Amino acid sequence: MSAINDFKESLLPLGKVKSLLPEAKKTYAQAEPFPHIYFDDFFDNDVVERVLKEFPRENDIDWIKYYDGHQKKLANENETNIGFFSRHVLYSLNSSLFLRFLEELTGIKNLISDPSFRGGGLHNIYQGGKLGVHVDFNKHEQYGLDRRLNLLLYLNKDWREEYGGHIELWDREVKKCVRSYLPKFNRVVIFSTTKTSFHGHPEPLSCPKYMSRKSLALYYYTNGWPEKVQNENHSTIFKLRPDEKIEGKLTLKTKKMLRHWPKLFGK
Fold first, then answer.
1. Contacts for 1 with CB less than 8 Å, ≥ 6 apart
2. pTM score
3. Hey, which of 59, 62, 81, 121 has its CA 20 to 30 A from 24?
4. Structural domain includes residue 4
5. What is the pLDDT of residue 233?
6. What's the domain range around 97?
7. Mapping DSSP to helix (H, G, I), strand (E, B) and coil, where does residue 151 land?
8. For 229-242, what is the mean pLDDT?
């Protein structure tokens, strides 16, 4: 337990979080093309260093493989494949303390975290990998909750602009990339999940073969949508950019995968 005891109060940067809120709330609400914000050096660097040290390599665990014309990435939501310290960082980001911060930051009340890390957990993308522009599934199939927020913590030290992998935020028609953020070490990106929150990193990574684009992903939910929001349930929806074409045969249909998730992955 010494790794946790080194951080006597909390793994979360609670003092920093509180001081950020007044300005961050305005930034989040006014952001384009949809509400979002990023924080650099969000955690103590020691925290993220330990998470990175525990992060499994390509052949260390049985990764979920998303390989089709829209995406080429690895993911893991199985807690038994996540290191001890990293699990506690994830637990902290799912805690009531952090939920209160997210509620105040975003204005979304009664947020619920997901202890199953459905679709989240660890994400890992190697040279040539990508994630096409998409909107996320908006209903948690096991719990029946409505997805409202994404949080991404990037773990990539010495990540250069030329490697690519920027998370791109697109307009509602997927005509223009409005914002993009390099997935650099200890950067957190938070954004609202809506039917038009198109995002991804559609260009294949050009990092060296020995590197990969690593991140922790957490999603937050509510039990229902505001009355003024009309939102039909859907799985992940990919949308091609202008002049983009799909290369290769689609081998994994997201909707089918989600419907049969427990059967496929032993859940």
1. none
2. 0.89
3. 121
4. no
5. 83
6. 23-224+234-265
7. strand
8. 83
Distance CA 185, CA 174 (A): 28
145-173 pLDDT per residue, tens: 999 999 999 999 999 999 999 999 999 99
Q: Find the CATH number of the domain harbouring 44.
A: 2.60.120.620
Contact (Cβ atoms closer than 8 angstroms) between residue 248 and residue 141? no
Cα(171)–Cα(91) distance, integer angstroms: 33
What DSSP character marks residue 34? Answer: S
Cα 206 from Cα 204, distance rounded (Å): 6
Pairing of strands 121-126, 71-76: antiparallel
State the Cα–Cα distance between residues 88 and 83, nearest whole angstrom. Answer: 9
- Alpha helix segments (H runs only) across 31-83: 45-54
Helices 14-30 + 96-106 axis angle, to 10: 30
Residue 10, domain member (yes or no): no
Please give the span between the terminal C-alpha atoms of the chain, in angstroms, as a whole number: 28
Distance between CA atoms of 171 and 185, rounded to whole angstroms?
26
Beta strands in the chain (DSSP E): 36-40, 64-67, 71-76, 112-113, 121-126, 130-135, 146-154, 167-170, 177-181, 187-192, 199-201, 212-222, 237-238
Note whether residue 6 is domain-resident.
Answer: no
At residue 254, does pLDDT exceed 90?
no
The full DSSP string for 7-32 is SSS-SS-HHHHHHHHHHHHHHHHH-S
CA distances for 98 relative to 18, 19, 89, 261, angstroms:
11, 14, 11, 28
- Report whether 186 contacts 158 (CB < 8 A): no
Is 135 inside a domain boundary? yes
C-alpha distances in Å from residue 123, one per residue of 129, 130, 218, 239: 12, 12, 11, 21
> For the chain, how many structural domains are there in total?
1
